């Protein structure tokens, strides 16, 4: 499975970014039937769960630190998952990774995911 994440960049605190993660055509079926998640990792810290969505896009889960600011969505016709990030804070600075769950559901556990994108850097300046 090949996942390509994009949309990262440098933004001022209070700003917004939209991340995308697209699967290659030959992996499309896997993504359509599986939960998807976004994780992030800052230097010196563990990779942490940010947000996840089930295979139909009906059910989502968010880390407390991003609730009300981040929104996950997916478009199975485009084999793509999105992360809309608003009201960004310097603490959101990290490399963001998309991941494919082993099941139709999302999970906050890293070991629930079998495939990972390459990561995209998000930097929020104060």
Describe it.
- The chain has one helix and eleven strands; from the N terminus they run E-E-E-H-E-E-E-E-E-E-E-E.
- It is mainly beta.
- The strands form two sheets. Strands 2, 4, 5, 6, 9, 10 and 11 form a seven-stranded mixed β-sheet that branches. Strands 1-3-8-7 form a four-stranded antiparallel β-sheet, with no helix packed on it.
- The longest helix is centred in the first third of the chain and has 5 residues.
- The chain is globular.
Short description:
By secondary structure, the chain is mainly beta.
Strand content: over 45%
Question: Which secondary-structure class do the elements indicate?
Answer: mainly beta
How far apart are the termini? 37 Å
Q: How helix-rich are the residues, as a percent range?
A: under 10%
- The value of Rg in angstroms is 13 Å
Major sheet size, sense and barrel closure: 7 strands, mixed
Tell me how many strands there are: 11
Shape field: globular
| Mean pLDDT over the full residue set | 94
Total of helices: 1
List low-confidence stretches. Answer: none
N to C succession of SSEs = EEEHEEEEEEEE
